[in-house]
Amino acid sequence: MKFKLVFIFISVFIINVNGYIDLVYNRTNVFDPKIYEDILDREECFKQIRYIATRNAFLGVQFLDAGFRIPRSIQKGNLFDLGSYYECLGIHNDVQNTSMSIEGKFCMTKIPLQQDTDVNATSLRVRPEFSELSWLVSWFNSQLLNVDSTTYEDLISHIRVKSQIQKLVGITPDNMQRNDQTAITELSIQMAVCIPKPCSLQNALDAILDLRPTDLQIEEAYCRIPNDRPWIAADYVALGIFTFLGILMVLSTAYDIRHQIFLKKDPKTANKIYQSFSVYTNTLRLVTYKPVAGALECLDGIRAFAMIWVIIGHTYVNQLTAATLHNPLDIKTFIESFWSLWITAGPITVDTFFALSGLLLIYSTAGKMTGLKLVKNLHLFYLNRYLRLFPVLAACVLLQASLFHRASDGPVWDEVGRQTHHCRKYWWSTLLFMQNYYNPGYMCLPHSWYLAIDFQLFLISPLILFWVVSGKKKTAWITIISALLASLVGTTIYNFIMGFKGGPVTLSPVKEGQPDYFSYYYVNTLPRSPPFFVGMIFGYILHLCRGKKVVMSKVQVILLWFIAIILSSAALCTNYLVLQEDWDNQTVDDLINSYMRPIWALSICWIIFACTHGYGGPINWILSHPMWKILGRLSYAMYLFHYPIIILINASSISPMYFSNEFSIRRFMTDFTISVLAAYFVTLFVDAPSSVLIKHFIGGGGGKRRPEPVKPLNSTNGPTSSSKGNVEAPEEEVVNKTSL
């Protein structure tokens, strides 16, 4: 009887099953379509259902237990139930004395809420053996499809906000703005069902019902069976490359330990090529720090705090946009609360890195070369930057296109499948740093847009850098200030013409004809450039003051700190204004979009200046503490790998999560810890060896070279590439490898 119950439950609301293709990505590129087609067998499906219904009630209970459940907390906005994924796929029963083998298939179904239908008015003709369960028709209508009007409106608002947050992190299906009408079409209850492997959902219904057309509709979202992820060339390439790197690490470490520990030879006499993959030496470089005069020590703390903010922000974002939440309607209350500003204002973190990038580009090059030398070595200027960014980025892209898809599994694993598909299709635009323009809505590594903008700003930087390194202060000042003013004027004109909303997320309905914020503003180089030029100005100021004592009165220092605090607080609090549901002031929105980010960058640059010249007090002590050194050196790998890790963890969920600050903080601790560990291994496998090899082949030198003196510009991010050197690039490059 229980087995009959599960199938009548399904049949009551599924009359016409339509194949559903997710427009976000081509699912057949990551899940094997042939395996699904080959297992379908209508006659075998009927045969297995008859056997279960008449001869194996316990097996029917297994299908019931693993499949259909009405979502809990519908009035709190939860429209999902994920069933029991692993239990369903684990069903396997070989019928004695027959060739029949019964296995489970997990399917997700969608039931649109906006349906003009009355199940009570329909006459479902149930086959005689199920006639006693006809009462479920009326129960289904009253209990499932009836959502009160307040909840219904809140659900529409939630979908609108959720789509904006998804677009912010690059996981939306298209670049179109979603309005209330499109939100209504997405309102649907999604439930898991477990059916015999040879069956389609329609076959399962035909086996127990005499169906007739009705207005009630449901879509089959997708189905999953074991071993449905085919091996492709990228998987074998990834296995081959990382196996080869592992062998090199073993051999290099053995050589290094033999040279330094067993033979007790001077580490400086070791062959740098043979030693480049050594876990022993690379770990020492990572954890060893030698103070150097002139270093901007506070940058490690700023970078570490910014990265922590990035990771916790992405943790919250993925909780807020999770497909399966027990209480999605509580998200609106959280977002419009003043106390959520530390999360909702998080996107401004990236402007910290843009400012650091411009600052260090000037600080590390001014006074070290001439304009003529810059022009002669421009190809190396670009090549070095590209090669320093490429290895870790390529490793992350390759893993996302291959092995990450096999790292785990779950009923919502399609989220990982979507990212895998994007990397298999658009890997090249990511490696060429043009994904923010070519495919902004379908990025491989959604957070990699920052690298694209930063690299594009780096490409144009010699136009300014040439005049800065020429040695003439007046020319340098005119050039840098002109660049900042040009970016501010261009950004202001652009924002007032386009009329963007005031932030990446708003609770008010999207205006008709309003351009897409993400594609045309958030990942656009022009409106994101002012913080970079603000950083350039302060980089030049720090260069001019290098080695000099800057004297300011207490009144000046207090006033400047007060201004910095007010400006940074104002930049953060503007998010609270635009997040209110009744907010509607396009002029203020345009001003916010034009000046909020450079104001934030200005505040960050003042902190760096004050800490460098002895006016930071306890703030400088915190930011300059040695404990931030390791995080600073791992920042690039952490940045690239933390977001795929967060997606993997969330996609492994087997039941809806309950959103709360406490749960999100606990999840952040998990995300952060795994990200640090992953960054450490990636640094040892890829980044550290690449740094040594690039310096060897681009910078010249033999297999054995003399240790080079430590340069001040490197010490900000730790040791240099000498025997006590930094495993990463010069510090301005490390900053450019850190993102939102």
Automatic annotation (TrEMBL):
SMART domains in UniProt: NRF
Chain residue ranges for the region called Disordered: 701-740
Superkingdom assignment: Eukaryota
Regions crossing the membrane: 236-255, 298-317, 337-365, 386-404, 449-469, 476-497, 529-545, 557-579, 599-624, 636-659, 665-686
Keyword field: Membrane, Transmembrane, Transmembrane helix
Pfam families: Acyl_transf_3 (PF01757), NRF (PF20146)
Composition skew (Polar residues), residue ranges: 713-725
Occurrences of domain Nose resistant-to-fluoxetine protein N-terminal (ranges): 42-225
InterPro entries referenced in this protein's UniProt entry, alphabetically: Acyl_transf_3_dom, Nose-resist-to-fluoxetine_N, O2_lipid_transport_reg
The protein's name: O-acyltransferase like protein-like
